[in-house]
Amino acid sequence: MASFSKCYAIKKNDFIKAGDASIKIKNLLKSTDIDPAIIRRVAVCGYEGEINVAMHGGNGKICIDIGENQITIKIDDDGPGIEDIDLAMKKGFSTATDKWREMGFGAGMGLPNMFKNADKFNIESEKGNGTHITMEFSLKGNI
Amino acid sequence: MTEREENIYSSYFLYKKDLCENCSECIKACPTHAIRIRRKKNLRFLDKCIGCGECIRVCPTGAMTTASKGIEDLNKDKFNIAIVSPVIYSQFPDIMATDVLAGVEKIGFDLSVDLTHFLELFQFATEEYIKRNKSNDEQTPYISPICPIVIRLITHKFPNLLKNVLPLERPVALFSAEIKENISKEYKVAEEDIELWHITPCPAKIISKKTQFLNEKKYINKSIGVNDIYVELFHEISKIKKKNLDLYCSGKSNVLFSGRSFEWGLSGGEIAGINNDKSIAVSGLKDTIAYLEKIDLGLLKHIDYLELRICPEGCIGGALTAIDKYIAKSAIRRLVNIYGKGRRLSKEKIMKLYDDGYFFTTVDTSEIKDIYGVKQNEPLSLDQLMEIDELVGIIKGRNCGVCGAPDCKTFAEDIVRGKAEFEDCLVPNLKQKVDKKKAENKTE
Ligand SMILES: Nc1ncnc2c1ncn2[C@@H]1O[C@H](COP(=O)(O)OP(=O)(O)OP(=O)(O)O)[C@@H](O)[C@H]1O
Ligand SMILES: [Mg+2]
Hints:
The complex is a heterodimer. Chain A has helices at residues 20-30, 36-55, 85-88, 98-102, 110-117; strands spanning 4-10, 60-66, 70-77, 120-125, 131-138. By secondary structure, chain A is an alpha+beta fold. Chain A has a single domain (4-138), classed as Heat Shock Protein 90. Chain A is globular. The mean pLDDT of chain A is 92. Chain B has 3 domains: 1-67, Alpha-Beta Plaits (2-Layer Sandwich); 71-367, no CATH class; 381-444, Orthogonal Bundle (3-methyladenine DNA Glycosylase II, Chain A, domain 3). Helices cover 42% and strands 11% of the residues of chain B. Chain B has helices at 3-6, 25-29, 54-58, 86-90, 97-106, 116-133, 148-157, 171-187, 226-240, 245-248, 253-256, 259-262, 269-272, 285-296, 325-339, 347-355, 365-372, 382-395, 408-416, 430-443, and strands at 7-9, 13-16, 35-37, 43-45, 64-66, 79-84, 111-114, 142-143, 194-200, 222-225, 279-283, 305-309. Chain B has a 4-stranded parallel sheet. The interface between A and B is medium-sized, with 22 and 17 residues. Adenosine-5'-triphosphate (ATP) is lined by residues 48, 52-53, 56-57, 77, 79-80, 82, 88, 93-96, 105-112, 131 of chain A.
């Protein structure tokens, strides 16, 4: 089935640019007639994911795929990976350093927010093998 | 050729064909991609112009100007009042504000009136509004309603942030609402014989019927750029200038002005007069857009109030100012040093006005769009998105701009929307290449 895809690179520790890809994705979606509420959820998930890659992960990329019935966001990085995924998914769990906390990160709400805002959420990660997240947003009867 | 063919107007600007050298700087600078030139200076403004003045700023030949009619538009049969904002004082370094006001009357206005009292009123009201409505999660952070271009940008690109705009009347509206009546009484002229002029650094304010915001009434009759009157005004002021700034600083004028109000034209000048330590001031087109994008993502919830100004360094960087913004900034700093930073108005009095609803306005977003004439693009379908992407891939261009669009992607979008032609692009046989690719896609 026809679909439209685009990928953007995310750089380790680049906090000025982290989030830019999600803004581009948001603007791309805004040029269509997709429901603004869905666009917002996609953008929020993308943003949290991007920040996580830059802060905890390594170098990576974020890809969007717009299909007839769903939007898929894939976020991959080559960082240290997550040892205990169940723990990382818990609200409030964070390994952010004091420095990040001073910048307003580290509430431990990123992954739970992504889980809440996506219609389907899948995370694969193990120590040493990076982190790979796939999120799906249903567009039924929308575009 | 007739004048109508030579001059082309947008909502805010005037393009003079005979001065244009086809450099296409304006097309690339426009933040809403509202300008196209199709072959031989056939410039078009799309209905997306927000009046920011970037095109004026970058135009090397002066072909892009405002639609201001200048001081010639002054009708001597009327009683003409000029509203003088502090930005104008900053344009005359080391000249007393009172001398500037006197000069404005010498160039033809019957009365010049200083705006700063109302700036302070507005700052008080803003402070109070934030204090009382901080916890409204839907609307925070609040966005300053002052910069008209920011409001147009929000209308065009971030319509769902219109709810964040502080619902208070702007100082110039508060001022205009009462001045005609007062002056009419004091000078014994009929209200309908009064014409209210705004001298402004802001290109978005030149067309006065597009200036009012939210439910403000249409009080301003005419607007004029600071640069339209600068030379004449400078000439008059140098004639009347009695004393220089230092000698004057202990005079009566201290009662009239507070240094705080002079800061208004600077980025950060608005929030400097508002007691709230969770405010930020951002200026310049790029940074303003970056901040709006963040609010749009639901971020910046820890901020109470955002002062946004499209022009770099604030209104002193406006496209219609007469002197360099950094010189103006240093002139303001000297004024602030002389006049001090005290407040002039009594809090009790303002609180009473506040509780009486004097400051409030309501947001009617649909009306705003009509007034500004800002249009959103028709939404693209998934197929169109793919078509644009494919076309960009075939062109593989470097945004040369020969086609008259700001970049290859916008050109591709114009093509897909049926608003440009393949022949406008430098790539030879573009249409054939696209057709070939389409045929390949089908057989795959
Ligand atoms: N891409 C990643 N690579 C390695 N570890 C990660 C990655 N993403 C998340 N983590 C781990 O999971 C934890 C929880 O992530 P989550 O996004 O929920 O919270 P946070 O990033 O610490 O804080 P917040 O997102 O609220 O600013 C992180 O502290 C980190 O230890
Ligand atoms: Mg996170």
